[in-house]
Amino acid sequence: EGGAREGEEWIFLSSKDANLMDMGETQAVFLKHQPTHVIHLAAMVGGLFKNMRANLDFWRNNIYINDNVLQAAHEVDAVRVVSCLSTCIFPDKTTYPINETMIHNGPPHESNFGYSYAKRMIDVHNRCVGQRGRCYTAVIPTNVFGPHDNFNIEDGHVLPGLIHKAYIAQKEGSPLVVWGSGTPRRQFIYSLDLARLFLWVLREYPEVDPIILSVGEEEEVSIKEAAEGVVEALGFKGQVTYDRTKADGQFKKTASNAKLLRYRPNFTFTPFKQALKETCDWFVANYDTARK
Ligand code: GFB
């Protein structure tokens, strides 16, 4: 499942190519490339703490990006658009495991409701443009990590944040400070596994309805266990402490990957420890140029 297949031309765009919050620039870049298939990953994203600080920006910026991209794709007659939701947009008060039918069944967690509602509107948009004959869809990844991530400690997600903090703590001989109690639970998907699944969704997945892309419920770990995984992967020898003055955010958002396994019964995820090791090795080798 490597790169482009025969007859496929892949074009990678970044925010340097167009400000997707601007409809004119978005239409211009779509007219320039005339894509038939689009993997839409553009978004204003961040970890728990960045979301808590900026729900209005997360709401507005993502609403603009998503409406512009989906409308511009429709206007250039793209046959496929795969957009990105997240398991953090599900209702906070819910039964477990969460599945794809539950997206709109109640308010999301307070910490990131701006981002969550903006993302939920992608599903509404896909269903609306579906009435015009489009089969645009969305995936719902659980917490993603891997090389090339945003390792910024204040704004990034938990695993890159812990990797960056442990790297500094190791050099300075200071403790690794994990934020919160360490008890919340998360499922983590390795970015390389997610990329393989994205290609399958783009080429084969037949539904407008979204599909969760996650490791199984049994792979869910506590933040404490994730931190211990980082300590092991980096070979950190110092003390680990927990700063309980920092928020825990959503306690859990356990998602079912049963729908994925129905389509891809033989898909194998990279083992968590191996994925963490590869991510840590990448970060150490690319410290100077990594986004942080
Ligand atoms: O990845 P994260 O920031 O976002 O994880 P969420 C937050 C959890 O990790 C909280 C704990 O329980 C934090 O207390 N934590 C411990 C840390 N140490 C750290 C650290 O150094 N950095 C960070 N960031 N957390 C996000 C949503 O929720 O999930 C986003 O807010 C996005 O919208 C993302 O969807 C996937 O998993 O809590």
Automatic annotation (TrEMBL):
EC number(s) recorded for this UniProt protein: 1.1.1.271
UniProt keyword Isomerase present: yes
Enzyme class: oxidoreductase
Classification via Pfam families: Epimerase
Domain NAD-dependent epimerase/dehydratase: 15-213
Protein name in the entry: GDP-L-fucose synthase
Function: Catalyzes the two-step NADP-dependent conversion of GDP-4-dehydro-6-deoxy-D-mannose to GDP-fucose, involving an epimerase and a reductase reaction.
Entry-linked InterPro entries: Epimerase_deHydtase (IPR001509), GDP_fucose/colitose_synth (IPR028614), NAD(P)-bd_dom_sf (IPR036291)
Organism: Oncorhynchus tshawytscha
GO molecular function, one term: GDP-L-fucose synthase activity
Keyword Cytoplasm on entry: no
Keywords, alphabetical: Isomerase, NADP, Oxidoreductase
Similarity section: Belongs to the NAD(P)-dependent epimerase/dehydratase family. Fucose synthase subfamily.
Pathway(s) served: Nucleotide-sugar biosynthesis; GDP-L-fucose biosynthesis via de novo pathway; GDP-L-fucose from GDP-alpha-D-mannose: step 2/2
